[in-house]
């Protein structure tokens, strides 16, 4: 399963990869938070989130502070992928 996620992430547009990294570094965020952190347009962030949800690396949940917004976070397999990637880069030196 890890190999399919790698292929899925590699096939995504740069904006989706940026949104993935923003969620990786900042943790769960609303769409508005992702727009502010990534400096991408709201439409681009929506499209990137759709693509990331399509390969099951992002989960959408209700943001309880404001139910009109959704909270986006990386799924467990996606978090394992990022930790494996960091481990590989540390041992490559």
Describe this structure in words.
This protein has helices at 2-11, 14-26, 31-38, 42-54, 76-91; strands at residues 29-30, 58-62, 70-74. It has 93 residues and is α+β, with helices and mostly antiparallel strands.
Neighbour order of strands in the largest sheet: 1-3-2
Look at the structure and give the CATH class: Mainly Alpha
How many domains? The number is: 1
pLDDT < 50 stretches: none
Shape: globular
What's the alpha carbon Rg, rounded to whole Å?
A: 13 Å
What is the distance, rounded to the nearest whole angstrom, between the alpha carbons of the first and last residues? 27 Å
Which fold name is given in CATH as the topology? Arc Repressor Mutant, subunit A
CATH architecture: Orthogonal Bundle
Order of helices and strands: HHEHHEEH
Number of helices: 5
CATH homologous superfamily placement? Winged helix-like DNA-binding domain superfamily/Winged helix DNA-binding domain
Kindly state the mean pLDDT as a whole number? 84
Main beta sheet strand tally, sense and closure = 3 strands, antiparallel
In quaternary terms, these chains amount to single chain
Question: Count the strands?
Answer: 3
Q: In which range does the helix fraction lie?
A: 55-70%
Percent range for β-strand residues? 5-15%
| Helix vs. strand class | alpha+beta
């Amino acid at each position: 399963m890890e190999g399919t996620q790698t292929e899925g992430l590699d096939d995504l547009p740069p904006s989706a990869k940026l949104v993935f990294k923003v969620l990786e570094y900042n943790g769960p965020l609303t769409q508005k938070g992702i727009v502010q952190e990534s400096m991408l347009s709201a439409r681009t962030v929506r499209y990137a989130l759709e693509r990331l949800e399509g390969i099951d690396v992002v989960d959408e949940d209700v943001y309880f502070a404001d139910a009109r917004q959704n909270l986006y976070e990386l799924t467990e397999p996606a978090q394992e992928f990022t930790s494996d990637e960091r481990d590989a880069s540390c041992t490559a030196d």
